[in-house]
TrEMBL record:
This is Sugar phosphate transporter domain-containing protein. The keyword Magnesium does not apply. Residues 21-308 form the Sugar phosphate transporter domain. The chain crosses the membrane at residues 12-35, 47-70, 82-100, 112-131, 138-155, 161-178, 199-216, 236-257, 264-285, 291-308. It is found in: Membrane.
């Protein structure tokens, strides 16, 4: 038996460790959003595909170091060609989600993209029903009404509304939801299940392979342009390196917070993160926000919280 004093010290250490993890998760999540917005909109670096490719290169390198060198998690190998094709399909959808999200940041305030991104549960419920015919409890579907209604209201009250940016943001949100549903379907068997860190290890290099030709075709001379930019302002290189590193740490801290708390805790923290990101982006970028827009976003957040509670109750029933 350990003395009560040492048990108490251990509990305090665990609490501070958890607080540190959550803080790191918040910092990396909000940091990468703010840097993406700054680079693509305020700084004028109008190359979202190249930026996404930088993220995936960093994720490939850091994943390799974390799993194969530092043994952060046990290595899970790909067991078949079919499993590889499934991971490739997920990687393609993941690329579409990240690129679309980055494109939307060129045209829309970060606060508004967060409001649209909060509708992920709505798209998840739709895709889950269409692909698995899985029905949720009626109360769960009812809670999705304020989620969507809030975005409709926020769109009407957004002073900087841009239709193409809005479409890209919706595409990014839908693709994110589609990936989560497909991941559950494609990698559902015990022999194919991969934890999020191993999945990233395999998805990131495939994403680079997909994004490289897309960058060459759609964002011609981006390397030469970036080098020219660096000669006049070296900070662009540091911005890209920091942004890319943060993109990996979003995934790492996401995994660690889930491991040391629970998926439900991460969901609750995610709801709060959206609100925090909105406030910080308004303070930093000073984008105009209407009362109608804030009411719409608040309604969406309330709907997401109610949806989480309804899901929790239906799972516990």
């Amino acid at each position: 038996m350990k003395p009560k004093g040492s048990q108490r010290r251990m509990q305090i250490q665990i609490q501070w460790f958890t607080i540190g993890l959550v803080s790191a998760w918040y910092t990396s999540n909000i940091g990468v959003l703010l840097l993406n917005k700054y680079l693509l909109s305020n700084y004028g670096f109008k190359y979202p595909i190249f930026l996404t490719m930088c993220h995936m290169i960093a994720c490939s390198l850091f994943s390799y170091l974390a799993i194969l060198c530092f043994k952060t998690v046990p290595l899970q190998s790909i067991r078949s060609r079919i499993q590889f094709l499934k991971i490739s399909a997920l990687s393609l959808i993941f690329c579409g989600s990240v690129v679309s999200g980055n494109v939307s940041l060129r045209y829309l305030p970060l606060s508004f993209t967060q409001a649209v991104g909060a509708t992920t549960p709505f798209f998840t419920a739709i895709f889950a029903y269409l692909m698995t015919f899985k029905r949720e409890a009626w109360l769960t579907y009812v809670t999705l009404v304020p989620v969507v209604a809030g975005v409709v209201i926020a769109s009407g009250g957004e002073p900087s509304f841009h239709l193409f940016g809005f479409i890209m943001c919706v595409v990014a949100t839908a693709a994110r939801a589609l990936k989560s549903v497909l991941q559950g379907i494609l990698l559902s068997s015990e022999g194919e299940k991969l934890n999020s860190m191993n999945l990233l290890l395999y998805m990131a290099p495939i994403a680079v392979f997909i994004l490289l030709p897309a960058t060459i075709l759609m964002e011609q001379n981006v390397i030469a342009i970036t080098i020219a930019l660096a000669r006049s302002d070296i900070k662009i290189i540091w911005y890209l390196l920091l942004n890319s590193a943060l993109a990996y740490f979003v995934n790492l801290t996401n995994f660690l917070v889930t491991k040391h708390t629970s998926a439900l805790t991460l969901q609750v923290l995610g709801n709060a993160k959206g609100a925090v990101a909105v406030v910080i982006s308004i303070i930093i970028f000073r984008n105009p926000v209407s009362v109608t827009g804030m009411l719409g976003y608040s309604l969406t957040v309330i709907g997401v919280v109610l949806y989480s509670e309804a899901k929790k109750r239906s799972m516990g029933a």
